[in-house]
Design a protein that fits this description.
single chain, 300 residues, alpha/beta, six-stranded mixed β-sheet, two-stranded antiparallel ribbon, globular, binds iron/sulfur cluster
């Protein structure tokens, strides 16, 4: 059995990426299981998805903690406490690791002390170029599919099926197929499937892993948690307000999900960049479009 963990942030399309990879494997004739795991809806918050692919019926259930392939959609997660779950297994044990980043594999391995074979590719840049957004589900599926040596025809069909299911229009589906293809062709095939067919043994029993309820959720019952967690480190872009056109309507203040916007004495909104995760909501909601998104230095 090949097992995968996809770790990313709410809004990146992690759940859809897992669906696409799973559906492509199913179309290729494998038994497949895929499941997402995330807490209360929170754009930018950690999201996990797990995939099991096997020639035999899959009896295991629950999260995968010891994956054949660990896919990390946002490299800032490597510094997140939740990564401890994978430290002793995937990152030290020699699972294959893919990281969405413009940084080199050597840089990521040495900065985060990773001993596993690791690949990097800047999927966010590709998505911005082809889709004009940071939605990387198709790119992530393309890169993951390549590492599994999947057939691109099955991946293409899976992108179409899964995006149709969530109501994406034909034109955008074609753009996502192009994105998946670009990511797919930018990596060399690794054929983890073949390696793991030889090396891994089937467990032969149902493995119900216990997972604490706080996994992947923000711990709002822990004192001082929201202050301690600088979600600004998640962000690749930051919103910048052009005060000349601001009408002081406060809509950005109301919509910001992380209370990163406060209202100053002069009634203008002020953004706290330590608390701003770059979710894009204030930029989308500002009625007079005076908030622009600017790339933060040194991200991805
Ligand atoms: S300030 Fe804007 S971009 Fe930042 S978290 Fe709030 S809504 Fe999202
Ligand atoms: S939503 Fe736009 S116009 Fe309204 S307060 Fe915020 S920045 Fe100003």
């Amino acid at each position: 059995m090949i097992t995968l963990c996809l770790l990313g942030r709410g809004g990146q399309g992690i759940k859809s990426a897992a669906r696409i990879v799973g559906t492509a494997a199913f179309l290729s004739g494998w038994n497949v299981q895929d499941q997402p795991l995330y807490g209360a809806e929170r754009r930018g918050g950690p999201v996990n998805a797990f995939i099991r692919i096997s020639v035999d019926p899959i009896l295991e259930r629950g999260p995968v903690t010891d994956p054949s392939l660990l896919v990390i959609a946002d490299y800032t997660l490597l510094a997140d406490p939740s990564m401890a779950d994978y430290k002793a297994s995937a990152l030290d044990r020699g699972s294959f690791v893919f990281v969405n980043s413009s940084k080199s594999p050597e840089y990521i391995r040495s900065k985060y002390g990773i001993n596993s074979p690791l690949w990097t590719l800047d999927l966010t840049e590709m998505a911005e170029e082809i889709l004009g957004t940071q939605m990387i589900s198709a790119a992530l599926a393309g890169a993951t599919g390549r590492m599994l040596n999947q057939d691109f025809g099955d991946l293409e069909q899976a992108v179409t099926l899964e995006l149709e299911n969530i109501g994406i229009g034909e034109k955008d589906i074609q753009r996502n197929v192009a994105l998946a293809k670009k990511a797919f062709e930018s990596l060399m095939p690794v054929d983890i499937a073949a390696i793991h067919r030889e090396e891994r043994q089937e467990p032969g029993f149902v493995n119900l892993t216990y997972h604490g309820p706080l996994l992947s959720t923000c711990s709002i019952i822990s004192a001082g948690n929201s202050q301690a967690r600088r979600v600004g480190e998640w962000s690749r872009f930051k919103p910048v307000i052009n005060y000349d056109g601001c009408t002081k309507c406060r809509i950005c203040f109301v919509y910001c999900p992380d209370s990163a916007i406060t209202i100053g004495k002069d009634d203008y909104p002020i953004i706290n960049y330590d608390a701003c995760k770059g979710c894009d909501i204030c930029h989308s909601e500002c009625p007079v479009k005076v908030i622009s998104l600017v790339k933060r230095e040194g991200t991805n």
